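ok so for the tutorial part 2 we go from a plain amino acid sequence to predicted structure tokens. step 1 is just haveing the sequence, like this:
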Amino acid sequence: MTVETLITQHIDTWTSAVKTKSTSGRGSSKKLELYGMKKLRELILELAVRGKLVPQDPNDEPASVLLERIAAEKAQLVKEKKIKKPKLLPPLTSQDLPNLPQGWEWAYFPDIADYAPGKTPATKNATYWDETEKGVPWISIADLNDTGTVETSSKKVSEVACEQVFKKNPVRSGTMLMSFKLTVGKVSILDVDAYHNEAIISIFPYTGIQQNYLFKVLPSIANSGNKKNAIMGFTLNSESLALLTIPVPPTIEQHRIVAKVDELMTLCDQLEQQTEDSIEAHQLLVSTLLNTLTHSADADELMENWARISDHFDTLFTTEESIDQLKQTILQLAVMGKLVPQDPNDEPASVLLERIAEEKAQLIKEKKIKKQKALPPIADDEKPFDLPNGWEWCRFSDMSNEVATGPFGSMIHKRDYIEGGTPLINPSHMIDSKIIEDNSITVSDIKVSELSSYKLFENDIVMARRGEMGRCALVSKREEGWLCGTGSFVLKFNQSLSRQYILLMFRTSYVREYLGGKSIGTTMTNLNHGILNKMPLLLPPIAQQHRIVTKVEEMMVLCNQLKARLERSKTTQLHLTDAIVEQAI
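step 2 — the prediction. this is what the tokens look like for a chain of 585 residues:
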């Protein structure tokens, strides 16, 4: 089977095997890794170094003759003192290495190329560095570019450094560089005369070894070498570099391999772009259709728009992101009053607001809470949603009794932490609307008495005021008496309000964007009382709050089932990809 047949027969697997990344990555979907395409690229290179990518030609001069000629070339260079005499390496035994095609040979890295690490001039010596046009480029790993050439560097060295540190001319343009420390196997071709640091080697292949061949195969070989753990990554040393084993094809076959790899990688680029375009178009379609739900003018239009989505449900919600978008749309519809029908018999929210105001007035009178600063009425341009019957627009301060801040940083330090004391609740302890106990962040009874005003009570809600704005957790009976931490708010409400509805509300994109700074046109990194208290919200009747929570929980169960099924399907795709690769090799 040719590689082209292997690609085309399994094209659906290569393009549909996708993994979710924890960090941003290449392509239109910043959280996705095109795992199938990554494995296909690796397979192409693996087939190349095993001699399975292009057919062998019995008329090619065998690599054994090439290596004999290189050995003579090296001996002459040593004699002329152009290179150092290499250290003796243990004999290569074929029993420890994969079989190679007829005419190929295994060789150690120093048998086919001369190489040398660079240097880093003392960074504190200003005379060694020159950022003017006279400076000579000095390449670090960050400057290397796997996809081709490197012609610019973030730093330049001076003539003084050239004379006193490097004591030789810069590495010539056209030379291949490879990192072997921290980031192993990152390669580039110099497009300018330059020096480089000690984590990079410049590579000079001997006659008959094609630089483009090494450029293709050396990165994976280096990564499979005897790497050692370092503080910031993995590293090869001079010994493990020398012991890298390289499969050496005849010179003419090296050219054929490079041409075929370039051809197939171009095909991979096209498939990858098509896949990314498809993912982007799918996400745009899902977003557009879900937006029709939140922008529906009335119940009839909402049902019409939902019917359009439900007809294509199985083809729309096929990615984690699309399911997460669906979840967010459900939450948004909930707080807009569009998820469940209104009941005209419900006590209107206006009566609830009056009751909350009366309770707050009594608490102020009893000096249990402070009187809040009066806020202006909600203007029309602050109301992004229509008002359903029985609901009321209000500011957050109108529906809460109190927003209390955790203790100032000067009141508690790491030295105050003890083992087995009273837990201190910080944003990192708020997971999925629940409080997770951390025994390493607890304080003594003496400290608790000093911070008694920051005690938590059942049915309080703690909220992060740093990092992920809107992250909340409900205080249960278990956590009563624990302490609110420095980076948190404690939110206290009238007993009638549904705490689950409040938690639901804080998960919506509207609330999170508002708290994150959208309301003031900037990005918030530390939420203050003013922004939170001023936030305009739609408040439903109490009975409606409970119906909304029940419906949302029901729909979230379905979404989670859908995501679990998707995860199983994705795992199957990844295993299938690995199986195809293993079988091909």
